[in-house]
């Protein structure tokens, strides 16, 4: 089953074309990655899929629902597509405790048993229950990214968009977070779209990858090509 489908996606910022006629489809349960040099359009593409970049042209469908340019994501679509950003420090509110950070999305979506859900969310990402009382600056970088992942998973999304989720972390913490993401993907049956600069991360995580340059997709790599390291030469 296809859960993400792009046809001829184009995003322009004034005279600048950030993404140009990108087309691909991602199957349920896959980890599909975007690779390529800085500025080639990876984050812009992910932001379209997250509903954050609303000006674009082409065709986009998410979970068999076609998305229209300009439209705000609502309802199931908003719950089902979540994004984790590179810098957890910037994506967490500095003056909110972890309890508030995790409880608010649940309240907004009218969930009950908020405390129990927050506790479970922290457990799932390997954080102690007493982390609820802490502020972002009282956590390590890895712990902050765990909270950001816990928050993204609160509403049980089907698609997780990961934009350089570990590049702000040191090597050993990076491996822990990647393993955590792989475990959660299996447990919750999610589909991942991953952006990373790190060829090892790509090879470790991805079923397939698309190599972008100058806003275009130039090449696809399947699992075999990734295992043999062909993407390292791209
Ligand atoms: N809001 C914006 N306004 C104008 N130009 C933008 C905007 N967002 C991105 N761009 C431009 O679009 C191009 C693609 O940017 P994007 O952030 O998608 O690249 P990227 O592949 O994610 O790069 P990096 O690996 O450095 O994160 C760049 O030239 C960037 O300067
Ligand atoms: Mg980027």
From TrEMBL:
Protein's UniProt keywords contain Nucleotide-binding: yes
Q: Which InterPro entries match?
A: AAA+_ATPase, ABC_transp_ATP-bind, ABC_transporter-like_ATP-bd, ABC_transporter-like_CS, P-loop_NTPase
Name of the protein: Glutathione import ATP-binding protein GsiA
Which terms does the UniProt entry file under GO BP? transmembrane transport
- Where mainly located? membrane
**ABC transporter domain: residues covered:** 4-234
Tell me the SMART domains matching this sequence. AAA
Where is it localised? Answer: Cell inner membrane
Q: Which GO terms describe its cellular component?
A: plasma membrane
The lineage, from the top, is: Bacteria, Pseudomonadati, Pseudomonadota, Gammaproteobacteria, Enterobacterales
Q: What is known about its subunit structure?
A: The complex is composed of two ATP-binding proteins (GsiA), two transmembrane proteins (GsiC and GsiD) and a solute-binding protein (GsiB).
């Amino acid at each position: 089953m296809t859960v993400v489908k792009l046809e001829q996606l184009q995003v322009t910022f004034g005279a600048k074309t950030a993404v140009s006629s990108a087309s691909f489809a991602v199957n349920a349960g896959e980890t599909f990655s975007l690779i390529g040099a800085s500025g080639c359009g990876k984050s812009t593409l992910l932001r379209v899929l997250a509903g954050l970049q609303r000006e674009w042209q082409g065709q986009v469908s998410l979970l068999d629902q076609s998305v229209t340019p300009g439209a705000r994501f609502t309802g199931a679509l908003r719950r089902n597509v979540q994004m984790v950003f590179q810098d957890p420090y910037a994506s967490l509110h500095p003056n909110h405790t972890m309890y508030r950070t995790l409880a608010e999305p649940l309240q907004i979506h009218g969930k009950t048993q908020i405390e129990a859900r927050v506790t479970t969310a922290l457990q799932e990402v390997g954080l102690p229950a007493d982390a609820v009382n802490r502020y972002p600056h009282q956590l390590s970088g890895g712990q902050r990214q765990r909270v950001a992942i816990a928050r993204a998973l609160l509403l049980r999304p089907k698609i997780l968009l990961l934009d350089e989720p570990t590049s702000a972390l040191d090597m050993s913490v990076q491996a822990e977070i990647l393993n955590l993401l792989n475990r959660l993907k299996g447990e919750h049956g999610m589909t991942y779209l991953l952006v990373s600069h790190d060829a090892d991360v790509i090879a470790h995580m991805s079923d397939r990858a698309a190599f972008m340059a100058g806003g275009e997709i130039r090449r696809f790599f399947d699992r075999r090509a990734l295992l043999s390291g062909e993407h390292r030469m791209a």
